[in-house]
Specification:
- The complex is a heterodimer of chains A (283) and B (251).
- Chain A is built from 10 helices and 12 strands.
- With 283 residues, chain A is an alpha/beta fold.
- The longest helix of chain A has 16 residues.
- Chain A is elongated.
- The N terminus of chain A is likely disordered.
- With 251 residues, chain B is an all-alpha fold.
- Chain B has 10 helices and no strands.
- The chains are: A alpha/beta (283), B mainly alpha (251).
- The interface between A and B is medium-sized, with 30 and 24 residues.
């Protein structure tokens, strides 16, 4: 993959742990996100994705460990850092009684920088909501609210964008459109951290980290996670089928074929299978 | 953060709160009408049990002050918790709004509502009860109502920190609102309470509000209870400071 615009670390997470009472949400998480890359956080509900994002944003004070974003600490340097951060929470987090434009303007005004009106119109155009700018938010569909939430997160042109399940409940066409927008932003140097359940979205990331029970169980480029994956080899002999789960069929197939077979079928694990296996604690 | 930047942010939050209020007509109407209905019921109740004239007037103005205190406190607490539950509070923080700006902005936005509410309640009190108030007396009671409304908003912000959802605001209502009924002199004179209760009453904001109103009802002016009058803004600043220091961005 040669998509990286610039080298250098945008986000560094080291030994991060956090609890909600007796529940361990994050356990000794280590991560590095390069500048200008799209980094996916993959995992089931309760894996710790939201907690990790909110810790990076600085909304949560972790029990242990260290987070650095653009060389700043989310807690100690929160006000300095936040003008460089864009955050799209899982819930739309919008003001239903205000218009689309008023919402974007309001969240931009907190940063007190840039050309307000032009940036608001630009971000509304980016998410294709310019024609609904004067409408109140409660009149929008769920997908439109998600687009508006994205517009609010990027209106101040942040260097790092943190998106917590931005495509949850969004139809496939809109999802594709979202990912096109993420790719556009990354191509201009924006670092994006995005959490998702969708495996096709994982493939669209430059790198992913798979989270399970608060731990990172794997982190790599998605296409590098899959090729080393296991395969299921099915062999037909005299009308009988035998199934073999192998770590690397290229090494193990000759041994399996010591007795000739009538038919051979090799089924590779998909990324989804790999993720599920890792989440379930398999090797 | 410069003072100018902080003020600009406060103004932006206040303008947004006010725009939301204007957009939510039902909320606006309910918060205006509910206290008026309660005062009307109070009048009906007093008429039914046979109290007349001066006795009613002595209780009506303090009761009006308490109703403003109560309604404003509950509304502010619920709206703030709603912000937190919806995630907009967290988003405000992430987008650079500081706690002081948020609290000041809310105060600004809701002050418009509190002012309207105080005026309407005062008009109703004058129409329903034989208060015998002159212009200066009405101004005095309005000032007390308005200060109590601002104080109630600050208390609402403070208490909203302890509630994780709108439902959790309700247990705080008796906790924050019922003791003042007994300790402020609204029903029973503070002097007739046990010593410990008299000491506690000095930290109850409503006590100072009622003291000023009683001075007016006794035929004096609000300046006759200057100490109590000064205590109201002092308490407002103290509670506001606490509210801004403790404002949480998320649940």
């Amino acid at each position: 993959m040669t998509r990286f615009i610039s080298v250098g670390c945008a986000i560094e997470v080291a030994g991060l742990s956090h609890d909600y009472g007796a529940i361990r949400a994050l356990s000794n998480v280590d991560l590095q996100v390069e500048r200008g890359e799209i980094f996916g956080l993959i995992g089931p509900n309760g894996a710790g994705k939201t907690t990790l994002i909110r810790t990076i944003v600085g909304s949560l004070h972790p029990r242990d460990g260290k987070v650095t974003v653009l060389g700043l600490e989310p807690q100690a340097d929160r006000w300095k850092l936040r003008s460089h951060l864009g955050y799209m929470p899982q819930a739309a987090a919008l003001y239903d009684d205000l218009t689309v434009r008023a919402n974007v303007s309001f969240f931009l005004a907190g940063h007190q920088r840039g050309n307000g009106r032009a940036q608001v119109e630009e971000s509304l155009s980016f998410v294709e909501l310019s024609d609904r700018a004067g409408h109140r938010v409660h009149t929008l569909s769920g997908g439109m609210k998600q687009r508006l939430s994205l517009a609010c997160a990027l209106v101040h042109r942040p260097e790092v964008l943190l998106l917590d399940e931005p495509t949850a409940g969004v139809d496939p066409e809109l999802r594709a459109s979202f990912w096109q927008r993420f790719r556009d932003l990354a191509s201009k140097g924006t670092t994006i951290v995005v959490s998702t359940h969708q495996m096709d979205e994982a493939y669209a990331c430059d790198r992913i980290a798979i989270l399970s029970r608060g731990q990172v169980v794997a982190a790599d480029q998605p296409r590098l996670l899959a090729p080393g994956a296991r395969a299921t080899v099915r062999l037909w002999r005299n009308g009988q089928v035998s199934e073999h789960s192998v770590a690397d069929y290229r090494d193990e197939l000759p041994g399996l074929l010591s007795t000739p077979a009538d038919r051979i079928e090799i089924e590779h694990e998909t990324l989804e299978d790999v993720v599920l296996r890792l989440i379930r604690g398999g090797q | 953060m410069t003072t100018a930047t902080g003020l600009t942010r406060s103004f932006t939050v206040g303008r947004r709160v006010f725009a939301q209020l204007r957009g939510d007509r039902r909320f606006l109407a309910l918060s205006m009408v509910a206290p008026l209905v309660v005062i009307f019921l109070l009048k009906t109740f007093w008429d039914s049990i046979g109290t007349v004239g001066l006795a009613q007037a002595n209780f009506a103005a303090p009761a009006g002050v308490f109703i403003v205190h109560f309604v404003t406190y509950v509304l502010t607490a619920i709206v703030l918790v709603r912000e937190r539950v919806a995630g907009t509070m967290e988003r405000m923080f992430v987008d650079g709004y500081r706690p002081g700006s948020i609290v000041a902005g809310y105060l600004g936005g809701y002050t418009v509502l509190a002012t309207l509410q105080s005026i309407l309640i005062l008009i109703e009190l004058n129409l329903l009860f034989d208060l015998g108030f002159g212009f200066a007396d009405n101004v005095a009671v309005f000032v007390v109502m308005w200060l109590m409304a601002v104080l109630s908003m600050s208390l609402g912000v403070l208490v909203s920190n302890a509630a994780r959802n709108e439902g959790q605001v309700f247990p705080f209502i008796p906790l924050v609102m019922v003791p003042p009924v007994f300790l402020s002199g609204l029903i029973v004179a503070v002097d007739s309470l046990p010593t410990w209760a008299q000491v506690v009453s000095r930290v109850v904001p409503l006590y100072y509000g009622i003291e000023v109103v009683k001075a007016v009802l006794a035929g004096g002016s609000m300046l006759d209870a200057l100490g109590a009058l000064i205590m109201l803004p002092v308490l407002i600043v103290a509670v506001l400071f606490l509210a801004a220091r403790t404002l949480r961005e998320s649940r």
